[in-house]
Write a structure and sequence with these properties.
210 residues, mainly alpha, globular
């Protein structure tokens, strides 16, 4: 226990702040709170620098994308969903069919292999294929979060599991711990958003047809 306390007391403050804000983002997103996006913006700005420093180049590039999506997510979550909540404010949780996710998954895998080959042969990137896999799928999963698609949490369960291995191998132990917590929160988020989705469907079905 003393060694653990000593480790965290000597932890670079940049990574500690990024970790705490990233954790706040996921918890707030699981609760459907709009304030998840400001937390995401700051944490991803910090992680852009951190990952570049340890040559996880695709992860660093991914966090630049996250910066943009944090702004976009904040904007679009304030919009109303005309097919689900025509009289209310705020985007509602929706669900996509499994067949669509399967097709997208195949396409993203092909893209990951192609980019992974490039990273392996033309850059000094560490773990080029795994790093690229998590990056490509995280790009799509983040978009799903901005659209409040229920299944985004299932994508994150796989992405987080692979990321844990990468961060342990690169010595980013606090971030690895953070991603273990992410898996727990992603499970909670799926259950929570499933409830939101069911409620919105009940509200939609209760509306009189025009």
């Amino acid at each position: 226990m003393a060694e653990v306390i000593q480790y965290f007391s000597s932890l670079p403050w940049l990574e500690l702040v990024a970790m705490l804000l990233a954790l706040a983002y996921v918890i707030l997103a699981a609760k459907g709170s709009l304030w998840c996006w400001p937390a995401a913006f700051i944490s991803t700005a910090l992680y852009t620098v951190i990952f570049y420093d340890v040559l996880l180049l695709m992860d660093s590039a991914l966090n630049v994308y996250y910066l943009v999506m944090a702004v976009y997510g904040y904007w679009i979550w304030q919009k109303k969903h005309p097919q689900v909540k025509p009289q209310g404010e705020g985007l509602e949780v929706i669900s996509l069919p499994a067949s669509k996710h399967l097709k997208i998954g195949v396409a993203l895998t092909v893209i990951s292999l192609a980019l992974g080959y490039f990273m392996a042969n033309y850059t000094p990137a560490a773990f080029p294929y795994l790093d690229t896999f998590t990056t490509v799928f995280a790009v799509f999963a983040t978009y799903l979060v901005t659209q409040k698609v229920l299944e985004n949490w299932l994508y994150w369960l796989v992405i987080d599991a692979v990321s844990i291995y990468l961060y342990l191998e690169k010595g980013l132990f606090p971030t690895a711990v953070l991603f273990i917590i992410y898996i727990v929160i992603a499970s909670y988020g799926y259950v929570k958003w499933h409830g939101f989705y069911k409620n919105s469907q009940l509200t939609l079905s209760a509306q009189p047809s025009s």
